[in-house]
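Hi there,

I know you've been waiting on this one. I reran it after we fixed the sequence typo, so this is the corrected version. Both the input and the resulting structure follow.
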Amino acid sequence: MQITAAQSKDECFYSDFEPRFKRMAFKFTRNSYQAEDLAQEISLKIHQNLSSFNTEIGSLENWAMRLGKNLLIDHYRASKRSREVEMPENEAPLQTFPNPSATDPFSKLLRRETAEILDRAFKRLPFKLCEAVKLRDVEGLTYQEISEHLEVPEGTAKSRINRGRKQLAKYLSPYLAAF
């Protein structure tokens, strides 16, 4: 089997970008096997679309990374859709937090402990993130209302909410592992 100049060039291109593709894919999946598969898929997609690259618009590296990122976003959206499962009408949602109307001592204790854990997690957040998350998730305000209340652009409000939720999830993950 002979290797043509084009094959050799493509392999060189892939070997130059392979580590970056894998890191980028791992950030999206947090799974090394999926990251490996996606990195190969990115390389294949780049190879298939290489003829559409225009040197006048930008560098090959930026074009390849943008193409890879778009593929990862598509993969994320597809996997998110596949995880969304409709709940049958006759089934109640799972109760992961204590029922606020329950009066038995165990439920009261569980509610108090849950509130303390959440309070500690919220106190660890920077004020701007905490305020945005509470306005959205506790008060139930819309993004537009939050941006007006905080006097920031709507995109900034969404970003703060997203970052705050991620930090809360990180703080609460040891407690949620028990569920």
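Quick highlight: The chain has a mean pLDDT of 76.

Best,
R. S.
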